[in-house]
Amino acid sequence: MTEAEGLSDWLRLSLTDGVGTQTARDLLNRFGLPEQVFSAGFAALQKCVPDKLARMLSAAPSESIAAQIKLSLAWARQPGNQVLTLADHDYPPSLLSIADPPPLLYVKGRMDLLSRPSVAIVGSRSATQQGLQNAARFAQALSDAGLTVISGLALGIDGSAHEGALSPNPTQGSTVAITGTGMDRVYPAKHRALAHRIAIDGCLVSEYPLGTPAMAANFPRRNRLISGLSQGVLVVEAALQSGSLITAKSALEQGREVFAIPGSIHSPLAKGCHQLIRQGAKLVESAQDILEELRWQLPSISDHQVHSAATPKHSESDALLEAAGYDPVSVDDLAERTRLPLMAIHAGLLALEMQGQIEMLAGGMYRRLR
Amino acid sequence: MTEAEGLSDWLRLSLTDGVGTQTARDLLNRFGLPEQVFSAGFAALQKCVPDKLARMLSAAPSESIAAQIKLSLAWARQPGNQVLTLADHDYPPSLLSIADPPPLLYVKGRMDLLSRPSVAIVGSRSATQQGLQNAARFAQALSDAGLTVISGLALGIDGSAHEGALSPNPTQGSTVAITGTGMDRVYPAKHRALAHRIAIDGCLVSEYPLGTPAMAANFPRRNRLISGLSQGVLVVEAALQSGSLITAKSALEQGREVFAIPGSIHSPLAKGCHQLIRQGAKLVESAQDILEELRWQLPSISDHQVHSAATPKHSESDALLEAAGYDPVSVDDLAERTRLPLMAIHAGLLALEMQGQIEMLAGGMYRRLR
Asked: Residue ranges of the alpha helices (H) in A202-242?
């Protein structure tokens, strides 16, 4: 988004207290772009949000929000930085298929990595040496094969996965770190140098406003982006109470593959992986196992054309509109009528929604408006 | 079988060159008990076996067979020894449900162990220390829970499983070794002392005549009895080419559960287990996992009444005969008509076949004769 005016409205919407992902989507569904939300007026806003929020949205932005917008726009102008909105063509297509894509993403580094086929590698913060080595080796093999390796910048498995996948070679994959803090902060501090290297040869992504400190509540929520950006999630070592199991659960809810590395039955850090395997995760012994499994689902994995396949083309939008008709229709119906891949349908629907051509109804149904 | 005359005919049948499990069953199906086979005469025998075999069966037994019968009868008279025939009430009910139950079993030790709920534990001959310890601990826990632990007396995992499960306490389970040699031989020699202890507190079983030496060809075939006697097979450590995978395959063909213990992806001895898990075997971390899984299938696991549930009662035979009618009928039809458990049906059919009341037709169909 080069047009600062449009972006500042997106920023303001996401920075307003009481506007979470769902409320933002409701408002955008009803009014169109953020600027139309702010010009809608109290009476119209009051019909879909609480009075207090309607008052804030129809008034001028507060001083603190105005200052934060200014700061964010300045940040976005720095080389390598980018703020992507849901309406951007570069918004990661795989996130469009999850239940609650963030309206804004703060991105630093190689944005092209966000549209490659991706595998997340997650696991324990207090991993064993063998676990760390496994994470790094799997990550390197996947990156060598051209995939993006996604993780959460945490200590332990996350850090080793980033290290293993980092590559300055643009024909290979590299790594994306999804952080739970604002993009101007690094957590944990021990990973400051790693984060700087990822900003150059990889990519850092956060949905949280600049300045957001590390807060326990934000990390589990962040995990849905780790799985959502990926075609599959590999759990390397995880105790039974590990946060990695939340990421695996979220992957299943999003229809992603879950892979797990087995280990000794006497290792507490294998128990989480074993539980996942018993629940249906694929047991993997090598990166090759993952590549073979994903090749089934990503015929384009070798030529990195997933992005173009998943991003709605103009003709796909037309096909969707035509297939939708003017009666409420489900995504399954659309899939059957258009024969388009699900990811393309989700992406297309969101684009059409943003353009005000269709609306989402209760129960995941869609209706054509024009 | 106390009647030596009947037993010597069973022995002669099984000792005759050219009479394997299938031919024995064909002959018994057609003529009834072994004594009726030998009195049938050349002309009748010629209709179902090659001329040379028909001549042998209709003549007097050769000197070497007569000597072997004498030896076997003397062996069977020694305390603790037993030769079980397919017609015996004590023949293990679980073996009656496999495709090719041996006509004769040479048994030494606690015969009651053959009718308890059983789990086989198998694995590599060149196991790791951890693998040996796992085998012994799982075996002990299963034996403590009242189960019989079955294995093949080989070096490595087999030996540790027998050691772990051996118990002189009759209220607990113990162990059964299915050997690939005659019951008067011990292979490997290193397990001579173990075999002697199993003969006292556990049970040794072989389908091979006395004097049969260790022959490579006999061991894979023996594996079908290890799985067939069990409700489930646990593979502890196995390389990709391990004979244990043959036992697991045979377990699947026989409708038994397969369990596998995972391990490090860097251990060649975990690869066989991992392959099994990928193919659907249940990943287990403790003996408790196995007990929980089997409890689903063995409601009587706690009171050891599996034998009485599976052995055909007189009224069950009547019900089967009545349900069979005089038209060819499949086991599935009989299961639907009688609502009896499959194991009881197989056991009942075999008993009725032995009594000459029904015959088995091609394609696994049965027809009532009287």
From this structure: 218-228
